[in-house]
Structures are given as C-alpha cells and as structure tokens.
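Trying the structure run again after the queue cleared.
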Amino acid sequence: MIFPSRARMFARKSIERLVVEAEGGSRLRRELGARALVFLGTGATIGAGIYVLAGKAAREDAGPALMLSFILAAIGCAFAALCFSELASMVPVSGSVYTYAYATLGELPAWGVGWLLILEYSVSAAAVAQGWSSYFNELLKSATGFSIDPRLLSAPWDFDYATSGFVAVEAKRRLVDGTMISSSAWLNLPAFIITAIVTAVIVRGIRESARFNGAILILNFLIIALVVCLGVFAIDPRNWRPFFHPERGWGGVASGASYIFFAYVGFDATATYAEEARNPRRDVPIGIIGSLIICTLIYVVMTGVLTGMVPSSRIDVDAPFAAAFRAHGLNRASSLIAVGVLAATTNVVLVGILSQARIFLAMARDGLLPSSIFGAIHPKTQIPLRSTLLIGLFVGAAAALAPLGLLAKLVDIGVLFLFVVVCVVVWILRIAQPEARRSFRTPFLPVVATCGILINGYLMFSLDVRLWIGLGVWLAIGFLIYLAGAARRSESV
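Done. Tokens:
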C-alpha cells in the first residue's frame, strides 16, 4: 500500500488530453445516433420502479398528487441533466461523471466517483436481475402452472437489518405428497441466466446492443400503452379527490418525490456512450434530455391512471397496477404487466453492464485499472470485450449468490451524490475554461447548477442515516483499494 502525495492525488487532466487519449490507439466504433441514445437512456431508466414504487408512494405519501411528485423529482433530475449535457458536449469520451471529475477535481475524487458508479451500474444491474427472476417465475406459473424450484430462486444468504448480520435463506417447497418442507436456498438461477443472455448480446457489438435495447423498449412502450388504454376506461374522477394526501398535504408530495426518485436512475447512462455516438457533441445532450422527458411523461400518465382506478387509500402496495386491474375484473392484465416488467428490467441489466464497461475503459486509460483487461478493445467488434465478459460474470454471480439488498439501497444516495458532483463540475469548468468548445450550454448556469445542488442535496439528506453510513463505508473501501493498487498504476502527471 502506498500513500501518494497530495499533488498526485489531486492531479488533473486537461480536456484536450482526455479527448486525444480517447481518439488515439484502439477506438470504440461510432454507431449511435440521437434516437439510439434516447432509447438507451430510456431503457436504462424505465425499470420495475413505476410498477412497484408508485403504489406505496401514492397510498402513504402523496395520494393522486403523486403525479406532482414525479414532476418534482424530474425537475431535480432536469437540473443535473442540463449540466450533464454541457459536460458531454465538452468532453465526448466514455467516462461520464468519472472523466468530468478527473478534469476538474483530480485523480482521487475521480476514483471515488468511479467507485460510486459501480453501485449505479453493476450492483444495480445485479439487483434488478434478481427482481427479474421473481417476475419470470410468477409469469411462468400463471401461464403454464409450472413453478421453478424455490431453491433456485434465491441467493443462499441474506442480510438481516435487525441483527446486522448475514443469515441463511430458507426456501419452502411442496413435496409430491403435498408436504411443505424448508431447505437452504442454492442460487438464483434465472437471474444468472438472464445476465448471461444479455452479456452474449452485448459482446456482439454496440450496434447489436442498441438494436436489442430498442426492440425490448418498443415492446415495453406497447405494453404501457395497452395498460393505459385499458385503465382509462376504469377511471373514476372521484378517486382524484382529494388530490393531496389528506394527512400529508404538500409535504407528502416532497416525501413521495424522495421515495420514487429511484425510478429516474439511469438516464445519465447516455453520457457513457459518447465515444460511440456519431455526433456526440450534439446527440448525447439530446439523448440525456430526451430520455428524461419521455420517462417523466410515462410516469405521470401511469400514475394518473392508477390513482384514477382505485382510491389512494386502497391501493395495493406490493402490486398496485395488477391489483387495480383485478379490482375491475381485468385479471389477465396482471400477466401483461408482468411481461412489461420483464421487458423493462431486461433493458436495465443490459444498459448497466454496457455502461460499466465504458466507465472501466476510461479508468483503465488513466492507469487506475489494468489496461490489459479493462482497456483492451476487440479489433472486430470494437468494444472492451474482456471487460464486458468480466463484468457480465461479476453481475451474474452477484445476482445468483449475493445478498444485494443492502448495496442496492445505497444506489439512491450514490446517484444523488453524483448528480451534485456534476452540478459542481459544470460550474467549475464554466469559470476555469470559459473559452472551451461547448455545443450545448446549460442555460442560466449559476441558477441551474445551484438548484441542482440544493434539490439533489435535499433529497440526499432526506434519506435514512444508515444509508449515509453505508455510503461512507463504501467510499472508505474504495479509498483503500486506491491506495493498495490503483494509485501505483496511475498515469497522472
């Protein structure tokens, strides 16, 4: 373990050098247009969140005014999105927030940002794959009557928050004679399989990955459209009165926004594809802002349908949309919703692995990760093949065997922290390098950046103190890894 000097830990790279390094040697293939980037950002964002989070937030926090909660959360994201867009137009390379931090804050802060991005992409993808497994089993059971062995549907252990320790997971299964027995869980096999399938798609190339994402996203759009169309005929306007939660009022709108913020995580992934965009200085900002707008419209419409179908006080917290349709005699709609969840979560896993490989590529170029593994570009597909395979294996193994509940809870606070960093960085660069080329300029920058810092900071401070402790522990582990090896490999000057 080495302790680098303060000058080295905060050494920065110029934007010009970052761009030159990305364009030299083996390069990623520029295949993506504005539409593909919008689809990738939307696919990363629309996961199972809207199908699950909306129920609890509407019933316990905001009532029908949850529509305003989604808009409020979107406004907080929009400030960060505008800052992201300017930075992406200035630094069209794969590292996203990591690279922006390296150019302004230095090597050690950039390493911390890269370490946090593992939560947003790899850990989040693994946790979503576990959720995919549950929905797949339920859909399989309702369609065929066949159910997967429960021992193959869960990681063998979990984290117990009450005792702050790990416990073995017991899987209940029915024998042929009808007797119920409990035995230890083995692994989450469907989660591993879907991760393997997605990884196999990604290694074929960025064009194939974008096409796969687009096809799955269109399927999800069609399902959402059907859900909305069916639900509209079951709306009773009286369910929207009172509009605000009778006990929480406007405060419920704010707390609801904090709770459903997770539904917006992912739109920023578009910035990681800057090196694969045909016109990154124009198309990446379009991808970031366009995907945020599309997701917000979908969330508001779906929330309006849900709260119009069922009084907020009677919304089912666990399966809000499926229960709402069953209450109106539309039992088959629950299967449709399950297909929508599977489609949405498949894209989240794909974009998570895809984006993580690009982040690691940027870190490998800076010497913070082994370049022979994470910086190697395949000559035919022009993607970081070794890195992608290794990340796919890690995500699959974590989804199959690891208790991810604790780490998954850190995703929200980690992403909010990254949004604050982006708002700070764009302000620094506007002051330090006013002459730098910017195809997109954040409007009313001091105001926008300040609002982004305040809103996302407020959402951070509204989270449980245990998440702050977890964030500190996660960053401390990352710092030790930096001292143990990353700093020694660093190419900072």
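The mean pLDDT is 86. Worth checking whether this holds up in the mutant runs.
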